[in-house]
Amino acid sequence: MVAHPSSSGTSYTALCTILQLKGEEEGWKFIQDYAGQVLQFTKSGAAPAKFVGQGEAAVGIVFSHDIVAEIEKGAPLVLTFPAEGTGYEIGGMGIIKGAKHLDAAKKWFDWALEPATQELGPKYEAYQAPTVTGAKPSRPELLEVNLIDYDFSYCGSNKSAFVDKFTNEIATAENLKE
Question: Can you give the pTM of this predicted structure?
Fold first, then answer.
């Protein structure tokens, strides 16, 4: 199972990773081939981990933190990464210019960037890798992944075209499973 890239940033990241690794021509052929093996395209990027954990499919393509969350709940899953490399996401935060409560926003930023704060993730079922020096990762293996040189500009500027091509030529976005 894998989510549909029209409704899932997770799936769009996976699609764009394939296109970057293989080039567009070979990448689309690869995507067409694997789409023929997909039981269901879901709306949510995290949903395939839940379905595979329940035995409804054999493989789920998701971000690693979604698999880890299901493993921590007792699902019989194995976390793996493609040897040739994988794309990734970078979570971010910002303060909006003219924020009504600027001092509070700055305090929240300062708190969020403390190593101890970033170590709180597992307490709230969040297993992303910490982003500040000194924070101990709950899952060190997540820092040992072969990441590709993911081109965020390329993926962002081509998103509409790539999602349209996927929807029109690979899998329609109608009746996606929650």
Answer: 0.87
